[in-house]
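Can anyone check this?
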Amino acid sequence: MLFAVAIQKPPNVSEAEIEEFCKAFGLLSPRDTSRTVVKVFRVVVRKAAQEGEFKSAEIAEEARVNRITAIHHLNRLLERELLEKDDNSYRLRQQSFQEMFEMMAQEQERMLRRMRILTKKMDEEMRI
């Protein structure tokens, strides 16, 4: 009896591209000298594509970081609204990098609209 095994081609996205994406979302900090967030985010995207949901221990193991570090970066992804969490499972909020970018662009547009209103009000109140 023969069994077919699907072998998934590794993603063709470079570390530099993932790093640039992480920078754009404010995930990469100067303290993260080993670029751990890039490793964690790459594993998150792969796990999400393969399984949909994942746990922090799975991310830690595959990214080869301790669980506390993985949770720290997962929490930062949650703060940036790139992930959702139910009980102990995480999943991406969007299914593609393009969708993540569009979400970020919409949030930036909302923030700029709020700032336009706020600065106009401040100028009016200060009679500038």
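Reply from J.R.: I decoded it. The chain has two domains: 15-93, 95-128.
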